[in-house]
Amino acid sequence: MPQHRIRVVDSHTAGEPTRVVIDGSPELPAISAAERAALLRHEHDAFRSAVVCEPRGSDALVGAWLGPALDPSCLAAVIYFNNVGYLGMCIHGTIGLMATLAHLGRIEPGRHRLETPAGLVEAELLESGDVAVTNVASYRHAADVAIDVPGFGTVVGDIAFAGNWFFLVQDHGQQLTREHTESLVQYTRAIRQAIIRNNVTGAAGGEIDHIALFTDESDGDADSRDFVLCPGGAFDRSPCGTGTSAKLACLHAQGRLKPGQSWRQRGFVGEVFEGSVAVRDGQVFPTVRGRAHVTAEATLILSDRDPFRSGIPQ
Ligand code: PYC
Fold first, then answer.
1. 213 C-alpha to ligand 1 centroid (Å)
2. Does residue 90 have an active-site annotation?
3. Angle, CA 183 vertex, CA 159 and CA 152 arms, to 5°
4. From the CA of 24, how far away is ligand 1's center (Å)?
5. Cα 286 to Cα 75: distance, rounded to the nearest angstrom
6. Which residues have CB under 6 Å of ligand 1?
7. Residue 270 CB neighbour total at 10 angstroms
8. CA gap 177, 270 in Å, rounded
9. 246-259 tens-digit pLDDT
10. Backbone angles phi, psi at 275, to 5 degrees
11. Which of 111, 147, 160, 291 has its CA 20 to 30 A from that of 135?
């Protein structure tokens, strides 16, 4: 019976899973990562859903298409995707990718450049196994944006870009603890729906598809704890690296974070990413450091007889 095989390596970064496709991806022409992401979306979307959706994956899983870079100074081009579509950038995924390539013996400690749909990023694999990712230029686009959220009243937040678009809320009155997971998902989904209904966007109509709640932490070894709703409705188990980048850009815009100053961001299941910013030519470049653990090497089997060959439709 005809079947297609896809070889993957799975990992988690601070609890958030990544699945890097090592073999069996659609081959894409030598065009930019953003153009390749558009091609994947329009011509190979069944590949995305087969790799990350149930029954082979889950709503929390982020997949990575890996291919040759256009720019010879780059290690590879990478396109991250989830249960509903494609990401501009993913930092937990980049940390997972570096751990995967080290596990396969394909890279050594050092700095590696990657092409992503959002632009060039740099990932440094440290001798300790930690990975520090320097993101694309990140910025606060709008401060104190008030949105009427049915059932919850007015919610005020900042809009920021950090490879993906975020709505960041500090004054939410919610408790960011595990026993409140369901109500946090409900609350952040209601904010997302209100953003869509009110046609609130980032620059150039950029879709705000990540909602991030923050609470200051004074007692632990972190500065803040977060809860981040991802585009497909699952919450990020890690602190969310692009979400942390967006937070760092906002803190810098508020004059609360100087270049080089450390910020420790705790994620919803308890692990911490460490971040800082550098300013070059007036632009803010966040660096986020964390660690991933390889959890599986596997071959996905897509059989023509399987009604869910391409995943269970969302
Ligand atoms: O770590 O940047 C991140 C991320 C984005 C979506 C899920 N994780």
1. 14
2. yes
3. 60
4. 24
5. 20
6. 16, 62, 87, 90-92, 230, 236, 238, 240-242
7. 14
8. 10
9. 999 999 999 999 99
10. -135, 165
11. 147
Tell me the per-residue pLDDT of 264-312, one tens digit each, with 9 for 90 and over: 999 999 999 999 999 999 999 999 999 999 999 999 999 999 999 999 9
Angstrom distance (rounded) from CA 136 to CA 138: 6
Reported as a single tens digit per residue, the pLDDT across 219-237 is 789 999 999 999 999 999 9
Please give the pLDDT value at position 67. 97
Taking the CB of residue 141, how many other CB atoms lie within 10 A of it? Answer: 20
Question: Which H helix or E strand runs over 182?
Answer: helix 181-197
Q: Indicate which atom in ligand 1 lies nearest the CA of residue 93.
A: 1
Rg (CA), the chain: 19
Q: How far is the CA of 39 from the centre of ligand 1 (A)?
A: 22
Place of tokens 């919850």: 152
pLDDT at 68 over 80: yes
Phi, psi of 96 (to 5 degrees): -65, -40
The predicted pLDDT at position 220 comes to 80
User: Which pTM does this prediction carry?
Assistant: 0.98
Determine which one of 53, 74, 90, 230 is catalytic: 90
Q: Of all protein residues, whose CA lies closest to atom 6 belonging to ligand 1?
A: 90
What type of residue is 103?
Answer: H
Torsional class of 29: left (φ above 0), alpha (ψ -120 to 50), beta (otherwise): beta
Give the amino acid at 95: I
* Omega before 55 within 30 of 0, i.e. cis: yes
- Choice among 53, 74, 240, 250 that is catalytic: 240
For 26-44, how does the pLDDT look when each residue is reduced to its tens digit (9 = 90+)?
A: 999 999 999 999 999 999 9
Locate the ligand 1 atom nearest the alpha carbon of residue 230 and give its number: 6
**Interval between CA 62 and ligand 1 midpoint (Å):** 8
Strands 153-161 and 272-280: unpaired
Return the residue matching tokens 């396969």. Answer: 104
